[in-house]
Amino acid sequence: MLENVSGSARPARRGFLLGAAALGAGGMLSACTSNELPQSTSAGAAPAANASSTPGKHVTIGFAGPLADHGWLNAINVNATERAASYEDVTFETTEGSNDTAQQIGQVETLINKQVDVLIILPADGKALTQVGLRAMEAGIPVINLDRIFDSPQAYRTWIGGDNYGMGLNAGRYIGEQLKDKPEATVVELAGLDNLELTQQRTRGFDDALKNYPNIRKVARQAADFTVESGQAKMAQLLQAVPRFDAIWNHDDDQGIGAERAIAQAGRDEFFMVGGAGSLHAMEAIQADNTVLKATVLYPPTMAASAVDLARALGQGTGVSGLAEHEIPTSLALYSAVVSKENVADYIATGFV
User: Fold this and answer.
1) If I label 295, which of 115, 183, 251, 272 is the partner at 20 to 30 A Cα–Cα?
2) Considering the entire predicted model, what is its pTM?
3) Residues 158 and 178: beta-carbon distance below 8 Å
4) Alpha helix (H) residue ranges in 194-252
5) Cα(162)–Cα(44) distance, rounded to whole angstroms?
6) Helices (H) and strands (E) in the chain, counts
7) Which of 136, 137, 133 lies closest to 101 in space, CA to CA?
8) Which architecture characterizes domain 164-298 according to CATH?
9) Are 224 and 191 in contact (CB under 8 A)?
10) How is domain 20-162+301-335 classified at the architecture level of CATH?
11) What is the largest CA-CA distance in the chain?
12) Of residues 345, 278, 327, 332, the one with CA closest to residue 303
C-alpha cells in the first residue's frame, strides 16, 4: 500500500554510537595489529596500513555471516574472507551463510565447540541470536557483533556496523541542499523492509533532515523488499500515484536497479534519485551522469574487513592504533558518506557487485 506522508516525530538517536566518522569505513581500524600488508586493489576488502611486518600471536577467527543473496551481503562475505586471508597469523573458520535463525544458531554453536579464539557474527536476526552470543561470551570467546545488533550488550564484546539513522540523515541533507531554493519542492521515498529497525531508522533520519528545509514536502513513501523485482514494482506504483516530484530517496542500490527500470519504462526524468549502500552499478551510473541517479549514501560493507581487524586485535590482546586506550572500543558506527559526481572517483573502488 502506498503511504502518503505529512511528517513524523523526531526519534531518540541510537545511544551507543561512538563518533566514529573519523574512522571511516575501516582505514584506521586496519592499523589495529602488527602486520604490514600490501594495498588491496580489490573492490572488496579495504587495505590495511601502518603496521610491522612481523606476524603476531596466531588467532583463529570464526565467522557466521549471511546468505549472499544480495549484493551488499555478498560484499560482507568477500570483505571478511579477503581481509582474513591477508593475515599470516589468522585462521578463518567460516560457516555456510544462512538467513535462517535456527540454522545460524547451530552454526555459531559449532564454532563455539571448535573453541575458536574470537567470533564474528552478522546475525540474520539480532534478537533471535542474542542467546547464542551470550553463550559464546560465557565460554570465554569474545564476540564481534557485526551490523545487526544483539538485544543485550552482554552478548558481544564489540559492535561495529553502519549508521542507519545517519544514512537517512545524509540522504535528506543532500536532497535538501539540491532543492533548498526551489519553492514547494516535493520528494518521495522508496524504503526497504518496514519490519526491520534499520529501515525505520533510515526513514527517521531522512524525515529529520527534511525538517531543516521548510520548502520541501515528502508526499509519498513506498516500502520495497531490497530486491530488484520489488524495487521495480514499488517504484512503478510510486510513479503512477505521484505524477510529478523533484527527488526520490531510495534506501538500497540493489532495489534501485529495479527502480531505474520502472523509471525508464515510464519515461520520467523530472526528478533526481539518491540511492543507498554504494554498489558499483550505482557509482558507475553516477560517474556517467546519464540517468536520474545522481548520488548514493554509503553503508560500507568494508565493516566486515574491519571486524576481522578487531577480532585479530582482541585475539592478540592489542588496541587500535591512533587511540590512547589499550582496549578496543565497545562500539564503532561507520560514517555514511554521500557519493556524487564530485567525489565518485574517490569511492568507486569500494563499490560492490
Assistant:
1) 183
2) 0.82
3) no
4) 197-210, 228-241
5) 17
6) 10, 12
7) 133
8) 3-Layer(aba) Sandwich (3.40)
9) yes
10) 3-Layer(aba) Sandwich (3.40)
11) 63
12) 332
Q: Cell numbers 505521484 correspond to what residue?
A: 242
In 59-102, where do the E strands start and end?
59-64, 90-94
Indicate the Cα dihedral angle 180, 181, 186, 189, nearest 10°. Answer: -30
Of the pLDDT bands very low, low, confident and very high (cuts 50, 70, 90), residue 2 is low
Alpha-carbon separation of residue 236 from 209, 252, 261, 267 (angstroms)? 26, 16, 9, 11
Do the beta carbons of residue 219 and residue 245 sit within 8 Å? Answer: yes
Q: How far is Cα 132 from Cα 126, in angstroms, rounded to an integer?
A: 10
Q: What is the pLDDT of residues 27-57, one digit of tens each?
A: 334 334 333 333 333 344 443 433 333 589 9
Tell me the CA end-to-end span of the chain in Å, nearest whole number: 30
* pLDDT of res. 113: 97
Q: Which grid cell is 134?
A: 551470550
Q: Which one-letter amino acid corresponds to residue 250?
A: N
Strand pairing partners for 93?
62
Given a contact cutoff of 8 angstroms between Cβ atoms, the answer to whether 315 and 143 are in contact is: no
The three cell numbers of residue 311 are 577480532
Cβ-count burial of 347 within 10 angstroms (0-12 exposed, 13-18 middle, 19+ buried)?
buried
Q: How distant is the alpha carbon of residue 257 from its chain centre?
A: 18
Q: Which of 49-58, 137-146, 247-256 is least confident?
A: 49-58
